[in-house]
């Protein structure tokens, strides 16, 4: 198991940051008028996907370069020019000085999440009987979006509309594969896998309420882990709300916490 250190944090933050830049690129390809774009500045990725999009934020702040007032200003200006609030996902290994700068500039924490990881090995077990998991084609984007949105409807209703609209973008994104888990041919769970430099980011997993507790999430994890192993990945990661059921489920499947990350928003 790799140590939870700066080298690991850089791999994990880079994987998520590049996954989001690829999302913005895919959105722009599908709809050139949407305004989605990104920059790399001060060692971080700043992504704009619309004023209200959860993708609109930065990743890697202070992890790849020492954060300075000038560097932070350049990223803030990127968001301000597009009418967006400046949100930053900040790894604690960015250091005390980076956090002090954020507080001095009027930022406050708005979200706490755990970044979890584990080495990848091809799974030896199979999904429960009757369950199949498959990568979808681009023509199934609407089905995937519907399942994903319904799966998040109870825990995060604020995300439902976004998720029901992004299937085509997610399918179009480079180095990304969307999966559906089905029971007797009926889709009941959705998930995504994005790959960057040997890191497989497991994201977007949800199960529709009426098909929960039947092994669909476990099956999604098994088959995505198998896919990642087959495509040369050595490290798996997830991001889960701190203390959530998603975090507990990840730890039951062998993931462990690399670090606790805070999302900061400028409130002044």
Keywords summarizing the entry:
alpha+beta; Aminopeptidase; 11-stranded mixed beta sheet; 8 helices
Outline of this structure?
With 268 residues, this protein is of the alpha+beta class. The protein has helices at 6-30, 69-80, 96-104, 141-151, 160-165, 167-172, 216-230, 245-252; strands spanning 37-41, 44-48, 57-59, 87-90, 107-119, 131-135, 176-183, 186-196, 199-207, 235-241, 256-266. The termini are far apart.
3D structure, described in words:
The mean pLDDT is 92. Strands 1-2-3-4-11-5-10-9-8-7-6 form an 11-stranded mixed beta sheet, with helices on both faces. The chain folds into 2 domains: 6-114 and 261-266, no CATH class; 121-233, 3-Layer(aba) Sandwich (Aminopeptidase). 34% of the residues lie in helices and 30% in strands. The protein contains 8 helices and 11 strands. It is globular and about 55 Å long. The chain is of the alpha+beta class and 268 residues long. The protein starts with 5 loop residues before the first helix and ends with a strand.
């Amino acid at each position: 198991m790799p140590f939870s250190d700066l080298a690991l944090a850089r791999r994990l933050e880079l994987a998520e940051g590049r996954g989001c830049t690829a999302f913005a690129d895919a959105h722009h390809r599908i709809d050139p008028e949407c305004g989605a774009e990104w920059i790399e500045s001060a060692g971080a990725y700043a992504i704009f996907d619309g004023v209200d999009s959860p993708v609109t934020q930065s990743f890697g702040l202070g992890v790849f370069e020492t954060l300075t007032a000038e560097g932070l200003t350049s990223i803030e200006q990127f968001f301000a020019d597009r009418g967006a609030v400046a949100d930053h996902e900040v790894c604690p290994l960015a250091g005390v000085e980076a956090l002090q700068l954020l507080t001095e500039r009027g930022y406050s924490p708005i979200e706490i999440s755990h970044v979890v990881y584990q080495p990848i090995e091809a799974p030896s077990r199979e999904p429960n009987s009757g369950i199949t998991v498959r990568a979808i084609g681009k023509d199934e984007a609407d089905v995937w979006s519907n399942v994903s949105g319904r799966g998040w409807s109870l825990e995060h209703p604020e995300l439902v509309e976004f998720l029901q609209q992004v299937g085509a973008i997610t399918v179009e994104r480079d180095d990304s594969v969307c999966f559906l888990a089905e029971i007797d041919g009926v889709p009941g769970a959705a998930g995504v896998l994005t790959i960057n430099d040997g890191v497989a980011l497991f994201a977007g997993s949800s199960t529709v309420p009426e098909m929960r507790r039947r092994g669909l999430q476990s099956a999604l994890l098994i088959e995505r882990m198998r896919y990642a192993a087959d495509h040369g990945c050595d490290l798996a990661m997830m991001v889960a709300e701190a203390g959530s059921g998603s975090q507990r489920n990840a730890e039951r499947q062998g993931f462990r916490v690399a670090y606790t990350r805070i999302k900061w928003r400028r409130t002044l």
